[in-house]
Write a structure and sequence with these properties.
It is a single chain. The chain is mainly alpha-helical. The chain has a single domain, classed as Winged helix-like DNA-binding domain superfamily/Winged helix DNA-binding domain (Arc Repressor Mutant, subunit A, Orthogonal Bundle), CATH 1.10.10. Strands 1-2 form a two-stranded antiparallel ribbon. It is elongated, with a radius of gyration of 18 Å.
Length: 134
């Protein structure tokens, strides 16, 4: 029975956050923010490197990267030694949008967490960490 309650609450919370985040991020999308964050952790990357982090197909990644390049968020460059290899890196605009997106997302989560005490916030993070690592 607890699994049903958890599913109901988690689904509601996820849906509300996703809708609010997409509206606040526009024209950036949550998927684009995820890619920018991945690139900022270890750029440059090849498009194929993103597959392990994103639950999608290579064709969908190509489409996403095409939009991001048109929007000036990323740059694609050919490898100097092997022209078949394409490297992706974040542009200045992409960095600015990633920072804006992180701020929006963190603000939304902080607003939600502010409904409970600091102790319960720490407990929630601890318990979710236990669930995620099992």
């Amino acid at each position: 029975m607890i699994s049903e309650d958890f599913t109901r609450v988690w689904t509601k919370l996820s849906r509300e956050w996703k809708i609010s985040l997409e509206q606040a991020l526009a024209p950036l999308t949550e998927g684009q923010l995820n890619v920018l964050e991945l690139l900022l952790e270890s750029q440059p990357m090849k498009p194929s490197d993103l597959i392990q982090f994103l639950s999608t197909t290579p064709a969908a990644i190509t489409t996403l990267l095409d939009r991001m390049e048109r929007g000036g968020l990323i740059a694609r460059t050919r490898d100097d030694n092997d022209r078949r290899i394409v490297w992706i890196s974040v542009t200045e605009k992409g960095l600015s949008e990633a920072e804006r997106g992180r701020g929006i997302r963190n603000g939304m989560i902080e607003q939600s967490l502010d409904r409970i005490s600091s102790h319960n916030q720490q407990l929630l993070v601890y318990l979710l960490g236990k669930v995620a690592n099992s």
